[in-house]
Amino acid sequence: MTLKMPDIPDHEGFAAPVLPTGEPAPSASAFTKTFVGYQATCSCGWTDRRRFPATPEGAKEAEYRWWSRHTPGLLAAAPPSWLVIKSNLLCEQIVHLAADRPLAALTLLSQVESWQRTLLDQAVAAARENGASWAEVGEAMGISKQSAHERFRTPASTASGAE
Ligand SMILES: [Zn+2]
Prior knowledge:
Blueprint: E1 3-4, E2 12-18, E3 37-42, E4 47-52, H1 56-76, H2 81-100, H3 102-129, H4 134-141, H5 145-152, H6 155-159
Antiparallel strand pairs: 1-2, 2-3, 3-4
The structure holds zinc ion.
């Protein structure tokens, strides 16, 4: 059984049978004559270190580990899928507007730019207040830890040496 969550579509978890060599099988459906236990793994390459017995209960426990150990951090940085759909739709509509009425698109885009900057600063500040590291902020934005720190650090966070 594969485990999926709609907000993190690139991650499919499963209880991988652990081969006698100690390696988890590459997929849940991989043919394994003998296996010594179950280990939670994810399609992204993540593997749980803990091994569970080669029983149906063991498989269930391994599946639970994917959910309890792997997904919380991912979900924290994953916007709700319905909002991603709206955002993509907005982008698409502005592309059409820019083709038909470029000046109207410019007006709209400059409005978006002004609230986008403010909201970005607020979201970074909130993430930092909630204990997110610069590496996590960078990862959420698809930029490096260094870039995130240079772009968003405030005099207060520099003075306190906050990391
Ligand atoms: Zn994953």
